[in-house]
Amino acid sequence: TFVVTDNCIKCKYMDCVEVCPVDCFYEGDNMLVINPDECIDCGVCEPECPAEAILPDTQPGLESWIKLNAQYAEVWPNITSKREAPADAKAFDGVANKLEQYFS
Ligand code: SF4
Ligand code: F3S
User: Fold this and answer.
1) pTM, entire model
2) Which of 24, 26, 77, 86 has a CB 3.0–4.6 Å from the CB of 73, allowing a cystine?
């Protein structure tokens, strides 16, 4: 399974949605998550994210993101097509600790 991590927040480019063969992305206001029960681990979304926010769950240190993806995939709506990224997406690329300030 792959997971969406911090740098997606407020960047939300949605390129990942375009390539996922099983449509397993779910949408919050400022971020997307992957449903771990639906992800087939194909890996095609990882290089498509301009914010490099998608990582394999085998990477160390991702426990809290693995939980967050699973939790919010249950409550947020499914997203199956890309819309325009936020106008200020670039300004938020690489900003630290977005989870604490901007998660929604
Ligand atoms: Fe979708 Fe594949 Fe990415 Fe999983 S790894 S979210 S199936 S594109
Ligand atoms: Fe987020 Fe990257 Fe997708 S910024 S919406 S994980 S393309």
Assistant:
1) 0.97
2) 26
- Residue 27 and residue 50: Cα distance in Å, rounded? 17
Cα Rg of the chain, angstroms: 12
Beta strands in 1-104 (DSSP E): 2-4, 25-27, 32-34, 54-56
> Which ligand minimizes its atom distance to the CA of 89?
2
ipTM for the predicted complex comes to 0.98
3-state secondary structure of 56: strand
Number of domains within the chain: 1
Choosing from 13, 45, 78 the residue with most ligand 1 atoms within 8 A of its CB, the one to mutate for a pocket test is: 45
Q: Please report, in angstroms and rounded to a whole number, the separation of the first and last CA atoms in the chain.
A: 22
